[in-house]
Amino acid sequence: MIAGAAQADVGILVISARRGEFEAGFDRSGQTREHATLAKTLGVRKLIIAVNKMDEETVNWAEERFEAIKKKLVPYLKSVGYSPSSVDIIPISAISGANLMTPVSSDICSWYKGDSLIGTLDAMKPLPRNIDGEVRIPLLDKWKDRGVTVLSGKIESGTVSVGDTLTLMPNKQPIEVTGIEIEDLEDVTLAQAGENVNLLVKGADVSDVSSGFVLCSTDNTCPVVTKFIAQLVLVSLPGVFTIGHTSMLHIHTQTVHVTAARLYSEIDRKTKKPAAKRPRFVQQGSICYVAFETDTPICLEKFSDHPQMGRFTLRHEGLTIGIGKVLTHQEDTKPPQIPGCKFAGKKE
Question: Could you give the CA distance from residue 196 to residue 43 in angstroms, rounded to a whole number?
Fold first, then answer.
């Protein structure tokens, strides 16, 4: 799921309307919460919620059941970053095909006046792309094709042409693009931000590349760091979060162990401002500023510069415990003002 979501701009989250099944999925350890959180963190900008099994006998296309599900879903989706305008919630019945290709008949569902699932997808406007920015391609996969190294990933920013020379980070290894493939199309000579591409390259072998490496413009490469400061929202956490807490960091296509090195400040829930006292620990529901350290150098960006490479998920023991965004890092020459700290890479 993580690999697929990292390549998508729009996602369809299918949930069950059957009584008991939705509740199980929406429980704190359920997959509905997990998938919605990961989708936002991995860059899915628009989300369609397909409420399936509306024809099930305990539901029978009841508007009350649909509205009850919406009442629970909308606040949670808003808490992980989805505004109401970026979410469509559609009732469907996959087994009968109702409201999939064409709008559901009023004889079946008299209260729903919206479009069908496919109609909603067709009506979506193209999302804005940063095609003129510096090249950023987080790599997802690699292989050899008739002796040629092929690197696969999504262009998050910029434009790539055949013949371009890019830099593979964090190795700082120059490579030449000798061919571009987009999905199942014939070879193309140019690809832009938003497209999933297979790049045929010279100058790197598959043994030189790992998932999470990033192809960059040669004159403007991405930072490679082991320390960064982030704003963290703890969405589901058994126990407390404190200095020394270890978890798995998922950022763009990279997965690495990370340790909380310092807690700087916590946002007061009443005033919405940073508390004056530095916390010893934080709990579920907290919003805080945390310094992290990774086991190995990783490629990342400040959220303000490249949102797709600056948002992350923290997972621990198979559970998503937090979502966050990178505010600054040890290579940052113009760090922002962060309550309670000076700079991640300097002594305080």
Answer: 14
Question: Which amino acid, residue 284?
Answer: Q
How far, in Å, CA of 264 to CA of 339, rounded? 7
To the nearest 10 degrees (0 to 180), the angle between helices 31-41 and 63-79 is 50
The pTM score is: 0.80
C-alpha to C-alpha distance for 187 and 40, rounded to whole angstroms: 31
Q: Which residue has the tokens 């055949």?
A: 162
Spatial separation of the C-alpha atoms in residues 246 and 257, rounded to whole Å: 7
Q: What one-character-per-residue DSSP string does 163-224 give?
A: T-EEEEETTTEEEEEEEEEETTSPPBSEEETT-EEEEEEES--GGG--TT-EEEETTBPPPE
CA distance 299 to 136: 10
Whether residue 168 contacts residue 120, with contact meaning beta carbons closer than 8 Å, is answered with no
- pLDDT tens for 114-171 read 999 999 999 998 888 889 999 999 999 999 988 999 999 999 999 999 999 999 999 9
What one-letter code names the amino acid at 219? Answer: D
Q: How far is CA 44 from its chain centroid?
A: 6
> Would you say the C-alpha torsion 304, 343, 334, 224 has a positive or negative sign?
negative
pLDDT attached to residue 339: 63
Nearest Cα residue to 73 out of 47, 103, 45: 47
Which two tokens mark 46?
Answer: 């628009």
Q: CB of 214 within 8 A of CB of 238?
A: no
By three-state DSSP, how is residue 73 classified? helix
Which of 114, 112, 134 is CA-nearest to residue 123? 114
What DSSP state is assigned to residue 337?
P
Distance CA(279)–CA(316), nearest Å, equals 21
* Contact of 301 with 249, CB cutoff 8 Å: no
Q: In whole angstroms, what is the distance from residue 124 CA to residue 95 CA?
A: 25
Task: For residues 242 and 150, give the distance between their C-alpha atoms in angstroms, rounded to a whole number.
Answer: 42
The token duo for 15 is 């949930």
Give the pairing of strands 148-154 and 196-202: antiparallel
Q: Say which residues have a Cβ less than 8 Å from residue 344's Cβ, sequence separation at least 6.
A: 227, 228, 229, 291, 328, 329, 330, 332, 335
